């Protein structure tokens, strides 16, 4: 009986401990374009900064290309709501949100193959780590933006390619 209890206790302990591992925080290391954008519902977002190396405190301006890679025209906001996100060298994450709109945005038709270009500036005076920071742009769309139009507004979530920028302290 004692042997059976010992075997049972060892089996339970083995099942409880398992062989799982602790997930480590993602820490960016690649400088430049990661070429890993995720297209959603025919919209592709590509991100490119004005520099790949900067000093902490220097603003970085990003060009964001929003392209219709589908086969049908869609409506998108003329001035799209883009969220800039980034991962610091230590794995912490942050983002830059745009102020909330008070009125419905004006919409533009984006034909297959056409692109719109947007820009976003990230100020970096509060960055506190040297190293590679990985940036992405996220575009959200919903059909509620375009009421009474002949085309539906684009709906979905498209995430740009990642882009690693090296920041050094002054």
Give the distance, in angstroms, between the N- and C-terminal Cα atoms.
71 Å
- H/E topology pattern: HEEEEEEEEEEEE
Helical/strand content category: mainly beta
Radius of gyration, taken over Cα atoms and rounded to an integer in Å: 23 Å
Largest sheet: 7 strands, mixed
Instruction: Report the β-strand fraction as a percent range.
Output: 35-45%
Features:
170 residues; mainly beta; 7-stranded mixed beta sheet; 3-stranded antiparallel beta sheet; 1 helix; 12 strands; 9% helix; 40% strand
Structure description:
- The structure is a single chain.
- This protein is mainly β.
- Helices cover 9% and strands 40% of the residues.
- A hairpin with a 5-residue loop joins strand 6 and strand 7 (93-96).
- The radius of gyration is 23 Å and the shape is elongated.
- 23% of the residues are buried.
- The model is unreliable at 7-16 (pLDDT under 50).
Concise synopsis of the structure shown:
With 170 residues, the chain is mostly beta strands.
List the helices and strands and how they pair.
Layout: H1 2-17, E1 32-33, E2 43-49, E3 53-55, E4 60-68, E5 74-77, E6 82-87, E7 93-96, E8 107-110, E9 115-122, E10 131-141, E11 156-159, E12 163-168
Parallel strand pairs: 3-12
Antiparallel strand pairs: 1-12, 2-4, 4-9, 5-8, 6-7, 6-10, 10-11, 10-12
